[in-house]
Automatic annotation (TrEMBL):
CDD domains, A to Z: dNK (cd01673)
UniProt keyword Nucleotide-binding, yes or no: yes
Source taxonomy: Bacteria, Bacillati, Bacillota, Bacilli, Bacillales
UniProt xrefs under Gene3D superfamilies: P-loop containing nucleotide triphosphate hydrolases
Protein name as it appears in the record: Deoxyguanosine kinase
Catalytic residue positions: D85
Swiss-Prot/TrEMBL keywords: ATP-binding, Kinase, Nucleotide-binding, Transferase
GO MF annotation: an example: ATP binding
Amino acid sequence: MNVPFITIEGPIGVGKTTLSQALATHKNFHLLKEIVDENPFLNKFYEDIAEWSFQTEMFFLCNRYKQLTDIKKYILAEKKPVVADYHIFKNLIFAQRTLPASEYEKYEAIYQILTKDMPKPNMVVYLYASVDTLMQRIAMRGRDFERLIERQYMEQLAQDYHDFIDQFERNHPDIPVLRFNGDAIDFVKNHDDLTYVLQQCNQMLEERGCQS
Ligand SMILES: Nc1ncnc2c1ncn2[C@@H]1O[C@H](COP(=O)(O)OP(=O)(O)OP(=O)(O)O)[C@@H](O)[C@H]1O
Ligand SMILES: Nc1nc(=O)c2ncn([C@H]3C[C@H](O)[C@@H](CO)O3)c2[nH]1
């Protein structure tokens, strides 16, 4: 039996943390949440992406590397199931969008070295939604530094995510991707929708031979 390890992915504000928390609570999984407030570069990054992208992307990569190393050592090694509100591949999605080609090349080389022996999830949950919905949720959440996020940046990121996930599915047939449309399914306000998402995840874990 494999130890369940689910990662939730999707563009900014789509509901990754919200769904991860719900899954952790309902399934009694360990919750791995990405670091946001401690990131010293995010504020500057949104003010001037070209100037701060390398520092920002490296900061996210190093943090996620440390978090996943700890998860492997202290949680998965103890056979405790995990749900994470990110997959480390998101570094590539953001970095490819924000870094100039010459820096991206260096960044990707470092990424490949650091992620070689990272734990691999049994499945990925991909949440997507219209850019209108994403912009509304970002505004509603009200993080100060995210007021500077431009609609065009979100349009590009949402498309980047679609393309990357399609490619990921082709390249990793052993890691299934469950897709949910955040405009059609509301696991915050509608309990039946949350039950549906949980059922789909359970079924996928069973098919993957995971004990949960
Ligand atoms: N299905 C939903 N319906 C309505 N509001 C939602 C839904 N999912 C999340 N939200 C709200 O949208 C905001 C963003 O959600 P959340 O923080 O979970 O997104 P995220 O994908 O983790 O964001 P980030 O990429 O910034 O980490 C929050 O205020 C949350 O309460
Ligand atoms: N540039 C950049 N690279 C990343 O790897 C990355 N991961 C998350 N974020 C931004 C999105 C939200 O504002 C906020 C919380 O998710 O942080 C990122 N920004």
